[in-house]
Amino acid sequence: MIRASSKVAAAFLLAMLAFAPRPASATLEADPQMLYRQMKDAFARGDAHGWTYADQVYYLSTIFNAGRAYALQRPDDPAYGELATLTVQIGGALHYNPLIDYDAAAWYVREACRWVEKNSTDFALISASQALTERIDAEDNDPEALARMADEDALAIAHQFPHDVQAELMPLDADWRAWTLTHDTAWRTLAFERVAQPGFPIANLPDVFGAAFVDAAQGAVANAPGYSPADRANAAVIIARLKRIGKLDVIAHANAVPHDVYMSTLAPADEYFGPLGMSVLGIENEMKHVNVMLDYKYGNLESDAAVNIAMAVDDMHKVYPRDRDMAKLLLACIQMLERMTTPASTQEAGHLRGILTVEYQDSSQAQQLLGVEP
After folding, report:
1. Distance between CA atoms of residues 309 and 348, nearest Å
2. How many other CB atoms are there within 10 angstroms of residue 341's CB atom?
3. How far is residue 60's CA from residue 256's CA, in Å, rounded to a whole number?
4. Which of 166, 172, 207, 138 has the alpha carbon at shortest distance from 58?
5. What are the b/e assignments for 307-318, b being 16+ CB within 10 Å?
6. Across the strands, what pairs with 273?
7. Is CB count within 10 Å lower at the N or C end of the chain?
8. Between the CA of residue 112 and those of 82, 115, 358, what are the distances in Å?
């Protein structure tokens, strides 16, 4: 398996047992004992399965879980440094890329990279940190570059874990997400080309976008506009193979990790986010107020208020990434910000757009923002 040295792992686990997190505003309460058990379970699962790709990703997710808790509650605790090191070591070895990861943890990985670059003297670790940072930066400002790197990372995963079905699916995952993100048809063409290959595990299309992929292939076969001759030929092969197979097996993504250990489905009503300490209801009410003022032609005069709301939404995303209303709040905030033209509102809109379209790409709100037909 891919893991850090036993000394690093042991130091982290002991630190987690020794320190309890302090209560803090806009911060989840994490039980170190529970986090320890989750990581122990991840090790046991990996040992039992022989460390498949899914086991490796599960282990990385437990590191993300603990790392986010420490980043939000105890960033000065020695255990945080151990976690940051583990994040970069394991994340780099597993070719972490926010476009093909489902943990919504890019902000934390960035912080871990900053810690490593500030405190480590290990050249290889710093190099891995810089590579991860390049990918996270692209989420905000260069979707085309993010797509290219996701394709490279997915191919590296498939090569690293031969004959592992979930790993073999990663290039398709990267290409389809790249197509959805950039609307560059070259990515859709590449996805068709790869799936049409005889050895591709076509009976195990990912649950998150398998139906959309099949719909696109059927459209190409039916001579819908926008497809190249190569697309139509590969799509015909794909549809023929699917008909021979019959019922498809839907495979859950490798990042399907239970977050109930320390995350709530909904952010509590008495949690407060951002520089002004807004509750979820406060965020929604402030958004309504700013939009009314924009309707009355106040325009850029509302920029400061809108940016404060955006910062609260981003803060909530860090603490409760799986809140069921997260994607809805992100889209509403982006739409509000885009009604103004100040540098600050434009910057915040771009940042939230990257989060929504990359980290929550499967949501209906991201699909709406990206112009994907339902």
Report:
1. 10
2. 11
3. 12
4. 166
5. bbbbbbbbbbbb
6. 278
7. C
8. 10, 5, 20
Radius of gyration for the alpha carbons in the chain, expressed in angstroms and rounded: 22
Please report how many Cα atoms fall inside a 13 Å half-sphere around the Cα of residue 244, on the Cβ side. 7
Q: Report residue 152 CA to chain centroid gap.
A: 17
Decide: residue 247, CB within 10 A, 0-12 exposed, 13-18 middle, 19+ buried.
exposed
Query: pLDDT tens, 347-373?
Result: 999 999 999 999 999 999 999 999 987
Q: What is the rounded distance in angstroms from the CA atom of residue 88 to the CA atom of residue 90?
A: 6
Residue the block writes with tokens 């995963």:
157
The mean pLDDT of 227-233, rounded to a whole number, is 97
CA distance 30 to 20: 8
* Sign of the torsion formed by the C-alpha atoms of 51, 53, 55 and 56: positive
- In sequence order, what are the residues at sequence separation of 6 or more whose Cβ sits closer than 8 angstroms to the Cβ of residue 19? 32, 74, 77, 79
Q: pLDDT digit string (tens) for 39-97?
A: 778 978 888 988 899 999 999 999 998 888 888 888 888 889 999 999 999 999 999 99
